UniProtKB/TrEMBL annotation:
Highest taxon above the source species: Eukaryota
Record key words, sorted: Cytoplasm, Endonuclease, Hydrolase, Nuclease
A GO MF label: hydrolase activity
Protein name: Endonuclease V
Alphabetical list of Pfam families matching this protein: Endonuclease_5
PANTHER family: ENDONUCLEASE V
Cellular-component GO terms for this entry: cytoplasm
Subcellular location: Cytoplasm
InterPro entries, sorted: Endonuclease-V
Amino acid sequence: MIQESLKKQLITENGFNWSCETLKYVGGVDLSFSKNHPSIACASLLVLDFQTLDVVYEDFAIVDLTVPYVPGFLAFREAPVLLELIEKMKKSAISSFPQVLMVDGFGLACHLGVLADLPTIGIGKSLHHVDGLTQTRVKQLLQANEDSSSDIIPLIGDSGSTLGAAMRSSEGSSKPIFISVGHRISLASAIEIVKVSCKYRVPEPIRQPNADIRSKSHLRKHGLS
DNA sequence: GCGACAG
DNA sequence: ATCTTGTCGC
């Protein structure tokens, strides 16, 4: 199976020579779907200056997706076009090529990280039910941890492995975000980077593409939308 | 009681 | 993904 083959190549420890202090460019990828035509999407890759959270690079691609969305197999639908955008930027030798990439979805982050050979962090706005993880279980853990110092709890599956962490990025928010172990990065480092890049609930590298594409497609709603 | 499940 | 509902801030 392709997923198992890729899993063997997954590295869950830091494989980079920079630290949070020297991290300069953090990327984000996302797909935004057309309301009218469900198979048409705008894929985006953008890069933020980690210190200022300003967007320093952006690229888009309009695609017609033929692979359907199947829970657990998101990467087969979304990874190809995202990989294209990454390769294109890499080929262009643009100086702001990201040192780490944020990706929507747990498995997609791992999948894309291995294929692009890039450190990736998975960001989830909702929980992917896998390995015995449930919404209620996470809620209970966060509830129990409410008085404690940390707003971050590890997500440990039935298999005993740590798949990521749930983090309440805004005070009092009942909806946490989910940070997954990606590729070539440790969960601890991933959490640090996400914390710093959170202006709102969703970290900027993931939030910005949505806002940007919105305006872009709104601007060109005459042609495609 | 129904439906649960990244995007 | 998108939609809906609820809460809060403008």
